[in-house]
Amino acid sequence: MTGFEPPAPRLPPRLRGPLTAVLVTGPSMVPTLRHGDALLVRRGGRAVRPGDIVVAVFRSRPDLLVVKRAVRPVEGGWWVCGDNALGTDDSGTYGVADVLGRVVARYWPRPRRFSDRRV
């Protein structure tokens, strides 16, 4: 035994508490969300429905925390896609995602509430 242990895989921070702030990075949700938008994410509450904007982790990439649109439930998880078809890596690339929470509001730079209606 050499005493060397490979480093554990780095996992993204999980949502803590019922409401968590999340910052959008990248263009995958343009035009709905933009790089730098600050979001309020709710863990729990009502069940996720197709069309909801969610924070998720791909099963094939547990180190990658993403903001995407829930499309349909599959294999005990969700098929998720970005709104920007030209600039997104989503379930088409990484497969099924596990949803950690649902986006309920954007509080910076332009406050906007994401209600039960489609956005």
TrEMBL record:
Query: Is Hydrolase tagged as a keyword?
Result: yes
UniProt KW Membrane keyword: yes
Instruction: Give the keywords, sorted.
Output: Hydrolase, Membrane
Q: Where in the cell is it found?
A: Membrane
Q: Where is the Peptidase S24/S26A/S26B/S26C domain?
A: 18-91
Q: Report the Pfam families cross-referenced here.
A: Peptidase_S24
What is this protein's record name? S24/S26 family peptidase
